[in-house]
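Pilot study result, target chain (73 residues):
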Amino acid sequence: MQRIEIKSRVGDDGVLHLDVPLSADDANREVRIIIQTIPTPEEWQRCILETAGKWQGEFERPEQVELVERDPL
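Predicted structure:
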């Protein structure tokens, strides 16, 4: 299985055009294409600012349970 990563830009018409170079050995084979938009710097910053400082309460380590003694292998 070969993974190819190509970055492209969606046109003003909202359509993405891709030309993906593959070898002749890949002719007549099925492929899987996953489209994932990349967040803009503004979206990334907004996400960070929305989550920063949201934890309420103390960080506490729960009681540790007793270890069970096992037979040696």
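One observation from the pilot: Residues 41-51 form the longest helix (11 residues). A full batch analysis is planned for the follow-on phase.
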